[in-house]
Records
---
Amino acid sequence: MRKKQTTIKRFLLVLIITSFNFYSGQAQTNDITDNEALKAVLAAKEAAEKTGVLVNIAVVDAGANLKSFIRMDDSFLGSIDVSIKKAKTARYFNIATGELGKLTQPGGIIYNIELSNGGLVTFPGGIPIKNKQGKIIGAIGVSGGTIEQDHAIATVGAKSILN
Amino acid sequence: MRKKQTTIKRFLLVLIITSFNFYSGQAQTNDITDNEALKAVLAAKEAAEKTGVLVNIAVVDAGANLKSFIRMDDSFLGSIDVSIKKAKTARYFNIATGELGKLTQPGGIIYNIELSNGGLVTFPGGIPIKNKQGKIIGAIGVSGGTIEQDHAIATVGAKSILN
Amino acid sequence: MRKKQTTIKRFLLVLIITSFNFYSGQAQTNDITDNEALKAVLAAKEAAEKTGVLVNIAVVDAGANLKSFIRMDDSFLGSIDVSIKKAKTARYFNIATGELGKLTQPGGIIYNIELSNGGLVTFPGGIPIKNKQGKIIGAIGVSGGTIEQDHAIATVGAKSILN
Amino acid sequence: MRKKQTTIKRFLLVLIITSFNFYSGQAQTNDITDNEALKAVLAAKEAAEKTGVLVNIAVVDAGANLKSFIRMDDSFLGSIDVSIKKAKTARYFNIATGELGKLTQPGGIIYNIELSNGGLVTFPGGIPIKNKQGKIIGAIGVSGGTIEQDHAIATVGAKSILN
C-alpha cells in the first residue's frame, strides 16, 4: 500500500514538473527566443574574432524569419545577403547548407534548387539550430571566411544556446 | 423497319448524352475544376500520409495559375515554393519536371532554363494532369520527400481525377 | 481530512487534463494545422457558393507561410495574389486588413506601408485566425467579391475552426 | 623661456592626443562599428522592454547596408522588413523617416518616392545615427509599436552610441 502511494506520488511529481516546463518554457521549446538568437550571434562573432575571420552572422527563427544579425567591420558587403540566405536555406530544408549542396550540383537529384524560394545558398555555412530536446527551432548562417571557417563559426553559434 | 427505328433511336440517345456531357462538363474538358483540383490535392495528401512522407502539394490550372494547395504539418518550409514551381513548370512545358531536368544540365539543349519564368524547378515531382480524353488541363507539384516519393505522390494526385 | 484529499484529487485532475491537452493538442495551440486550414478554406468556399460569389481563398500559418489555398472556377485570376497577400498582411500585423487600410491612406499614420514586405494588401478580406484560447494561429485572405463579401466570407472561414 | 617650452610641450601633447584619437578612432568617425551598432540595438531593445512594446530593430551603416538587427519575441512579422526599410530610408536621405513622409503625400514635392530603392518607408521610426562630431555614420529603424513609440525607441538607440 505504501509502495503504491509512493508510485502514485512519483507519477504525479513527473506530471507537475512536465506541466511546469510547459508553462514556463513553451516559447523556447518550439521557437528560438530573441535572447537565444542574440547569444548565438555573439558566440559566433567571438569565435570569428579569435580566428581573425571577418564575417556576417544571421539567425532566423522557426518560421525562417530574420531574428538577429550582426556584420563585423570590414567584412564583405556581399556576405550580408549570403549569410541570411544560408540561415533561411538551413531552416527551409532542416539541413546544413553544405549537405544540401552535394545534391544540387549538375547531375544531382535537386539540381538548381537554388533558384527557388527567392534564391537559396547551398554551400557550407548554414546550419539548423536545435534545442536541448533536439528539435529544430531556427537556423544560423555565416558568410565571409572560407566555407570551412564559416561552417565552424556557425557551429559554435548554434551550439552556444545549449549552455 | 422496326430495326431501323431502333437504330435511329440509339443514335439520337447517344447524341443527347454527348450533348449533355458537353454542356454540363465543358469546364472539365479544357481546364481543371476547383473540385478536381481539391480532389487531386487530397488524394496526394492521403498517399503521402500512408507512406509517412511530409509534403507540400500544389495544383495549377490550364493557365498555370495556382488552383489549390495544401502544406502538411511539419513539412519543409522551402517546399511551398518548390511544389508550386514544380506544378507551374510541368504545365509551362507540358512535361514531367524530371524529364525536363534531363535537358537542362550543363551541355544540355536547354541548359539553365530554370532561370526563366521567375524560376523553374526541373527535378521530379511535377507532372501534367490530363482529363479522360488525354488533354492536359493542369498540373500538380509535390515537394518534401525524396524525388521518387514526390513523383509517386504527384502521380496519385494527377490520376485521382479520372475516377 | 477527506475534504483535503478531495481538493488534492481535483487539483491533480486539472493537472492531468492540462498535461493531456499539452501532449495531444500542442500543434493546434500555437499554429494552425493542415486540417484546420483545409476546414477554413472549405467553409469559406461553401459560404461563397451560397451567396453566388466567385473567390480565391488563402490560409497562412503562424509564420505567415501559405498553408492551404483554393481558387473557385471563373474567379478573377488577379485574386490569387490578392487573397494570399491579404492573408499574409493579416498575420504580419495581427489585424483585419480593412482596419490596417484605415491607417495607410494619404495623411494616414502608416501611409504607403503597402510597399513593404514585397507588397501588402490593406483593404478588407484578410483576417487573423484565432484558436479557442484567442491566440492568433494563422490568417485567411479572400478576394474576388466586393470587399464586404470578401470580409464576410473570410470571417466564416476563420470561425469554422472553432466548431 | 620656460613659458615657451611649456607652450611647445602643450602643443605637442595636443598633437599626440589628436593623432592617437585619429588612428585609434578612425572607423568610428566615418562609419558605425559593429559594437556601436550592437550597442544601439540593445539600448533600443531595453527601452522597448521598459515600455512594454514589442519591436524589430535594425541598424544600417554609412553605406546603408544592414549592420545589426534584433526581433523581439512575439513582435509583428511584418515589422522585420519595415524596420530595415526605415533604417535604410533614414540613411538614403539623411533624414528622420517621419520628416520625409511629410513630403511624399499626394501633392507633395516627392510624391510616391516610396516606390524607389526597392521600397521605402516614410512614416516615423527611422532616424540617422550621428557620431560625436555630428557626422551621420548610419541609421536605425524601429517597427512594432505606435509611430510615436517607434520614433522614441529609435532615438534612444541612436543616442546610445554617444555615451
---
Amino acid sequence: MKYVIFAIITFLLGPVASMAQRPPSLSSPEVHADNRITFKYFSKKAQKVMVSGEFLTAPQAMIRDTSSIWSVTVGPVKPDIYPYAFTVDSVQLADPSNTQIFTNERFKRSIVEIPGKTPLVHSLQNVPHGKISYRYYQSKTLGTTRQMLVYTPPGFKPNGTKKYPVLYLIHGGSDTEETWTKVGRANFIADNLISQGKAIEMIIVMPYGNVRPAPMADFTKDVVSDIIPFVESNYPVLTDSKHRAIAGFSVGGGQTLNIGLTNTDKFAYICSYAPYTATEEFQKNFSNYAPDANKINSQLKLFTISVGTDDFLYESVKKNIAMFEDKKIRVKSYIVLGGHTWMNCKQYLATTLQEIFKN
Amino acid sequence: MKYVIFAIITFLLGPVASMAQRPPSLSSPEVHADNRITFKYFSKKAQKVMVSGEFLTAPQAMIRDTSSIWSVTVGPVKPDIYPYAFTVDSVQLADPSNTQIFTNERFKRSIVEIPGKTPLVHSLQNVPHGKISYRYYQSKTLGTTRQMLVYTPPGFKPNGTKKYPVLYLIHGGSDTEETWTKVGRANFIADNLISQGKAIEMIIVMPYGNVRPAPMADFTKDVVSDIIPFVESNYPVLTDSKHRAIAGFSVGGGQTLNIGLTNTDKFAYICSYAPYTATEEFQKNFSNYAPDANKINSQLKLFTISVGTDDFLYESVKKNIAMFEDKKIRVKSYIVLGGHTWMNCKQYLATTLQEIFKN
C-alpha cells in the first residue's frame, strides 16, 4: 500500500513534471514463462493501437481497458530477440516503457527478448563478461571526431604480454555504432562462445559506418587509415593480416566486401552477412573485377557470405557469390532460413566467431 | 545526381523492407549557425504535428509541405543540450531521425545540442578523451546481474601505480544507467574539466539506481555491498572515504542523501542535486534524525545540495537544507536559476567535479 502511494506521488510529482502529461509507469513488454508476451501502452486519446514485430505475421490490435491502458498478449513466440513497434493511430513509435531501443537513424523501435528454457547464444549468461568501451578517435579522412565501440574479452589485460586478434564489425544501413551491441548482442555472443571454448579471445571493434555526405568509399579509407591505427596504438593487438578480420551486415556487409577484398594484405578473414551491394563503390570495385585469384586465395584464410532464403537480398547475394566463384575466389556460402533480420544476423556472427583466427 | 539515385534505391530496398512503410531519410534536428533549430517529421496521415522542448515556452506547430514533410524552425535558442519530443496528433514520441535519445524508462525523447560560439563544458572538444565502459556485476543484494557504466579518465592505466578517487553518480527517477552520459554528458564534462586542470583525474561510476520491485533502500545495500567492492576489485582506486564521493539527481539526489549520510565513514563527499525526498527511505532515515554533527562534520569534506529556483522541488529542497542546518550538519547550498532539468543538472555536476577530492 505504501508502495502504491509512493508510486502515485512519483506519478504526480515526477521529475519531468515540467513537460507534464507523464504517463503511468507500465511494465511493457512482459515476457511470460510460456513464451507469450504482453505489450502495454497508455493513451486516453488514441482510436487504435497496434503492435507489429518480426515475431508476428501481421500487426495485432491492442485493447483499451477502463484506465486507458491498451494491451495485448501474443504468442507463444520462438525464443529470440526481436524488434517491435507500436502504431498509435497513424504513428509508429518505440514502446515508451521499454529502455531496450533499436539504435537507428531513421526509426525508433524497441527490442524484446524471449529467453526460452535453454540459454541462447546471445543471452546474458552467468559467465565471465567482457567489457564494451565507448571510444573517440580522430578521423583524418573525415575531419571529425567519431565514436566507436570496442569489446575486450573477459580477463583482458591492456598492458599484459598477451596480444589479441581483432574483428572489425560493421552495422547495417541506417544503424549506428551501438546497433551491434544493443540489438546484435555481439558482446554476449562473444562472452558465451569464449567461455565455452568455441571462440578464441579477441577484440571486436564496432565503428560507425555511415560517412554521408562523404562518399561511401571514404569509410574504406577511414577504416584503413584512421580506425586500424587507433586500435593498434591503443590496444595490445596482433597486427598481421592473419589476426585481423572484417565482418558486417547489410550495407555493412557490402562495406565488408569493399574493404576486405581491396585489402587482402590486411584482412585474412572476410565475413559478409546479407550484403547490400547496389552501391557505387561496389560497382567500381567489382563490375570489372579481374583479381589474381591464386594470390587472394592464398592470402585469405576464410571468406564467407551468409544470407537467408527469405532475405529480400537473397537473389542479389546469390549473384554476388556466383560472381566471386566465377572469378575463382574461394568463397564459403552459408544459405540459411530466415530473412533480412537481426535474428539471422546474430546467428551469422555466432557462426563466424567460431571460425575466425583458428587457422 | 548519382547520390540522389542511390538514396532513392536505399529507400526502396532499405534493409528493413520487411517492415515496410519506411520513411524517407530526414536530417532532423538541424542546428543553424545562428542557433535556430529546424525539426522535421514525415507523415502522410497526421492531422497535427507539434514539437515541444525545454527551450520552448509552449509547443510549436510544424507545417506540412507537399511531400508530407512537417517542419518548423525555432529560436535562436540559448546554447545548451535540451530534451525535446514530437506530438503527432495525440502521440508523443522521440524524433525518428535523431539517434540521440533521452534514455528513460517511461518516455522516449530526443536530445538536441546547440553548440554556440564558445565550447560549453559538456561539449565534445578537441581534448584527450576518457573512456566509458559498460560493465556487468553480480548483485548479491538484488540477486541479478546488473549493468553499470564506468568512466575512466584520459591516460588511465588499469595496471599502473597511480590509484584514482571514485565518484558514484546516480541518475534520476525513471532514468537508466546511461542517462548520465547520454543526456548529462558526464564524460565530456570530466574530459573538459580535467584537460583544463579544473578537476582532478577520477573514475566515475554510474550504476542503475532503480531496484523496484525491491524496496528503494536495497539500492543503498547494493552500492555498499556490491558496487563498491566490484569497482575496488576491478579498478586501481583509493579506498578511503576521502577518495570516495557520491552524487545524484532528483530521485538519485535523494538516494545520494540516504546512501551518503548513513555511510559518512565511506563517503567524504556528498553532492545532492535537486533531491526528491518524498520516499519511505528518506522518511525512515531523517524524520527522527539525531546525528552526531561534530563527528559527521569532521568526516565530511564536502556536503552540497543544489537546486534551481524554478525547480518544482525548490520548496522541498529548501526544507531539506534547513533540516540539515537545524541538525548542525555543515551543508553548502547552491541555489541557482532554472528548473528541474538536465541543463541544470549538468551545471551541478560541472561545479561538483571542480570541488571534490581537493581537500
---
Amino acid sequence: MQDLDTPSTAALRQLDTPAAVIDLARMRRNIARMQQQADALGVRLRPHAKTSKCAQVVAAQQAAGAQGITVSTLKEAEQFFAQGLTDILYAVSMAPHRLPAALALCRRGCALQILTDSVEGARAIVDFGRQHGHAFEVLIEVDTDGHRSGITPQDDALLAVGRLLHEGGMRLAGVLTHAGSSYDLNAPEALTALAEQERAGCVHAAKRLRAAGLPCPVVSVGSTPTALAAASLQGVTELRAGVYVFFDLVMRNVGVCSEDDIALSVLTTVIGHQADKGWAIVDAGWMAMSRDRGTGRQAQDFGYGQVCTLDGTPMPGWLLSSANQEHGIVSKPDGDPSDVVARLPIGTRLRILPNHACATGAQFPQYQALAPEGGLTAWGRFHGW
Amino acid sequence: MQDLDTPSTAALRQLDTPAAVIDLARMRRNIARMQQQADALGVRLRPHAKTSKCAQVVAAQQAAGAQGITVSTLKEAEQFFAQGLTDILYAVSMAPHRLPAALALCRRGCALQILTDSVEGARAIVDFGRQHGHAFEVLIEVDTDGHRSGITPQDDALLAVGRLLHEGGMRLAGVLTHAGSSYDLNAPEALTALAEQERAGCVHAAKRLRAAGLPCPVVSVGSTPTALAAASLQGVTELRAGVYVFFDLVMRNVGVCSEDDIALSVLTTVIGHQADKGWAIVDAGWMAMSRDRGTGRQAQDFGYGQVCTLDGTPMPGWLLSSANQEHGIVSKPDGDPSDVVARLPIGTRLRILPNHACATGAQFPQYQALAPEGGLTAWGRFHGW
C-alpha cells in the first residue's frame, strides 16, 4: 500500500486523525469560479468568511479579486481586522450591547458596516452613535424569500428605518438580502428564479429608498446557490457567498457543484469492525463531522458523509452512516459489505466528504492545507465568539 | 427589568452572547446524585470527561468521590494528565498509529488504560509494546447491546484477544462495555432491563476470561441512563457515565432527569423579529447550539432547544425552532405568539436548554460557571484533537 503512495497520500499518512483537509487545487478552482461569476455579472464579490474563519483562505479569495469580506460575528471582524483587512461587513442584525465593540473597531480604522432590520434596532444605533459622536455605516436587511430576517421590500418600515438612520446622522450605506431558502432547492430553473427574486426584491428596496431621497449606494445580495445561478444582477453592486470556497454534499444536492469540487474532507482511521454487520468503525464521529445532517432532507442522503479513499476518490455507496462522539460507522447501506474487514483493515485511512463545510470546519482548531504536489501546511481557524 | 435582577441575572447581563452557562448548583447536585448511585451499588465511579473537557468540572467530580476519569481522545488524556490526573481510561479502540503517543504518556507517569476489541488491534498493541519494552494496561471492549463496537460476551474472539494480550506480555486489565442504545429508550423498566443486560453481559465476559485462566480485575460498565437505572451491579467494579454532569433535553426525554436538572444553557440575545410569523430572532444559531437534533426522534421534540427566561425558568411552548449559523428563530409553534415583539423586545436575554450537552459545550472555547450567589467564572475547555 505504501508503495503506491503519491506525495499527497504519503503526507496524509503522517497526520494524526481526525483532521480537516483542504484540497488546495479544488479550493482555488472554486474561488476562481465564483470570482469569474461576479466579474461576468459586473459586481464586486464580498466572500463570507464564516465558512472558513481562516486567514489563508480569505487571503486566497482576496488575491483572486474579492473586495472586502462578510462576517457573522464581531470576533471574526476583529480577527480579520488584526490581519490587515479593513473592509468588513458584519451581516447579522446589530445587537445594542455590541455597539461599543463595533465602535472600538471603527475607531481603530476598520471600515465596518453593520446591519439592522427594525426601527427599534436602528434607534439603538442612532442613539449610541450620536452619544459617541460616530456615524455608523449601516445597511438595511431586506427579506426577499421569507426564510429569516429582514424587512420586505414593499414594507413601510423600510423607509422608516432608512429615514431614522439618515436623519439620525448615520451613514445609510444601502440594502442587503440573503436568499437562504436557496438551500432547499435542487433544480437549475428554480435557483435562477430565486436569484432573480432576490435581485429584484433588493433592487426594488433600493429604488424605494432613493425615491424617498435617501442614499443607497450598496445593493448587496447572495447565497452560494443564487450567486451561481443568477442570470443577471442588474442594479446590484455586490455579491456575497460563503460555502462555495469548499462546497459540500448539501451544495452537491442543490446542484451547484459535483463531488469532485468538494475541497474539505475529514481524514480518518479505521479502528475496528463489526464484520457481521458490514461495519468499519472509524475515529471520525460527530465531533469531527459535526451533527449536521443537511442531506437527510435532500434527494440523496449521505448520512454523515461520503467515504473516499485516501487519495480522495469517492467509494460509491460507502457512507459514514452513523456517528457517536468519537466513533463513526462506515458501511455500504445498499450493497454487500461482507468484505469490509479485508477491504478496510484496521489502520486504513479514509477521507469523508461532509454534509456542510461550515459546520464541519468549525469542529477543528486548524485545517491541513494539501497542495497539489503533496505539501501539507497547518492553517489555524477561529473558534467561539 | 433591571430593577428585578437577582445577582445571577445581573451577572449574566454583563456577558457577551452567545455564552455557555453552567448552573453550578445543578451541576453539583447532578454530580452528587451519580456518586451516590455508584456508592449505593458498591462500585467506583469513573466519569467520562468528554462531556465537559473542562478541568474544573472534572475536579468537582473527583472531589465528590470519583476515581479516575474516562476520555475519548488522547488529547483529553494529555490535558488532564498535565493537570495532575493520572488514572485515565482511553475508552476508544486503540488505533495503531496512536501507540507512540500512548507510550509517551505512560512513560511520563500516566496510568493510562487502553482499549481493543479485535485480534488485529491486540496484535498491534502487543507488537508495539514488546518492541518498546512496555506492558500496556489493556481492557477488552465487550458489546452488550449491538449498538457499536466490541466483542459479544460469548464470542470466541474474546478469549483469543485475552490470550494474545496476556501471553504477549501486556497487562490484561479487564472488560468494558457501554450500552449506548439506552439513549433510544424512555421507560424506566426498559432502562433497568438494559442496565441488567449490560451488567450481565460484561460480567459473563469477565467470567469467561477468568475461567480460561486470564486476569480480569476490572469490569467496567455504563452510560448515564443505565447507570441511573441499574438495580444491581453485582460483579461490576466500576461505572462510567458522562452527560449526567450537565444533563440535557435528550436525557430529559429518556426519563433520567427533569428540565430543572439541566445545568448547561446557552445565553442569547434577541436581535430582531418577524412579528407576523411570531418569531424572535436570537444570536444563538447552530454554531452555538450545535446541529444536534437528538430530541427530533424522541417523544417530545424540542427543536434546537427549550427557551428559558434569563433566570433559567422554562417558557412553556417556546422553542428555538430553527437555526442558521449565527441566527436562531425563537417561536411558540403550538401557541399564539402574536405578542412576541412586546414580550421579547430587542436586547432581551434568554437561556436555551440544549438537546445534547456534549455537542453544545464543544461549540464554546469556555464555559461561564454561575455560582448560586451570582458569581461568574470563565472555565476553559479543550477543542480538537
